[in-house]
Amino acid sequence: MTGPDPSTLLADLAAGSAPFALIARDGESVEVLTGDVVDVELLADIPLIDASGAPREVLALVPYRQVRERGFVCHDDGAPLRCLVIDERVALPRAEAMAALPSSPVPLDDAGFDLADEDYADIVRRVIADEIGRGEGANFVIRRDFVAGVDVDPRVAALTWFRALLEHEKGAYWTFAVVTEGHIAVGASPEAHVSAKDGIVTMNPISGTFRHPAGGATAETLAEFLRSTKETEELFMVVDEELKMMSAVCSDGGRITGPHLKEMSRLTHTEYMLRGRSDLDPRDILRETMFAPTVTGSPMQNACTVIARHETTPRGYYSGVAALFTPNGNAEGPTHDLDAPILIRTAYLVDGRLRVPVGATLVRHSDPYGEVGETHGKAAGVLGAIGAIPRDVPVAPADADPDAPATARRPLAEDPAIAELLASRNERLAPFWMNPQDPDGSGPFAGRTALVVDAEDRFTTMLAHQLRHLGLDTRIVHWSEASDADVDGADLVVSGPGPGDPRDDSARMSAMRHVVSRRLTNDAPLLAVCLSHQILADRLGLDLAPLAQPHQGLQKSVDVFGEPASIGFYNTFTARATDAAAPGVDIAADAETGDVYALRGPGFASVQGHLESILSRDGMRTLERLIAHAL
Question: What span, in angstroms and rounded, lies between the C-alpha atoms of 500 and 509?
Fold first, then answer.
């Protein structure tokens, strides 16, 4: 029995009016999905079950505005959570599909970025000074859009661009076209945000962007990129941020493997893989992981606020996800598997206007014009593939077989020097997150309870995971919901980290001060972390001041009460050692600057760094020591 004729099927899609999606993700076939479109308000409303109770397959385009479900801020453009409820699926051989798809170039009119290069560079400067410099977070992604007019039938344009991306953009996780009434999305996403299959959740943080030089990338030029402190720390920061999400949805927290290279036509990225076990409904997994820090920033909640301050227009679907929910036949547990790439490197066509949104990750080391160049490089991956700008011609390495096709040449990741550089990154990281994890309730503090007070940085989910490994029965409560009964009822309170200036009089800062003060007043065991460490230091009479250079994503080796420890720091403010501190308080501080790294006294301890971070190689050992003192 033969399948449908690709030419007839694709011609009917081009000429028709029904919605459809094309997805290429296995390297061999193109999946053609057809069905009806349903727009819903919430992720929980995605219609995975039909009226008879049978599971059904759904492809959902999840817009950025869905972050409102988590209480986060955004410019709300009303972009619908659009669901293609699939009633028919056909797999076409990739080569036959490409032969049947249209290939004539789609002309563009009045093409260019909506924001001038110098204007974008100014935004980079402001974010570094006003946001990272004020402790609002470690990194932020601010976008700009490449726009153009298109005077071609939208469905033909979608099929043409899909074919071009299949042919010219290598290394994509999904290449796709989603065509619904009034809206078209065509892309080649390099990044799987989250997937769930057979109870295993996987996330794929990708960061660090190497723009291939003219003529293509070589091992020598890539090696220079891999030695960059900025690019290395950028990847570590997004891994930390996605581990926060993994720790929220996975019972075993999440184990990291890598790093790997993601080689594409004009760009190469570095990436890790995170895996853990979860029995949550895939819609709940998607909600708890909205959205990738690689396209928003960290900490996530404040990143959304910063985006709203510096982007003047809504994001639409940029940085959202395309989420494919597929029935898995499970009689127990989740009924659907999830596969959800990030909506980046995607062209949108609405009312004859093309829009290709791109963003750069801004960190403390960012060079404004370097970030401008990064947005050009990311846009070029899509624009070059669809023929809007000239395409690169790959250049073979000097030792390559000149008769070998480009697709047969050795990937750069297989170069011994590149492989060694990648592997060396893990020498800096915490073994805890590299090894299998599954807390069993044992540990040095088994039988005791811990309350973690969240000050709007979900590092608390990673902290809670580590506390459970140490035997503590742990729960997390948001600062706005932490009652005195909660604070009084736990054997140990961990007052958590968060963004902002600890000297502010905001409701959040006042609530965190109350938590710290109440535990001290009651002589009840307390561990204060980062922001809360600063609040504790202020209460004990130490000075607070901004650092000359923010320590966002910085790894340092410091002395913690007589024991050296390699710790990751994410702070813009610091406590400084003075003679005015309360008697009986031990202070671990830098001998030259007076920056306070840790405090301990009767029934309390604190740390400026993040012992839960992958950058804290000695995090678990130090955490256990500080808790033992507090208890």
Answer: 9
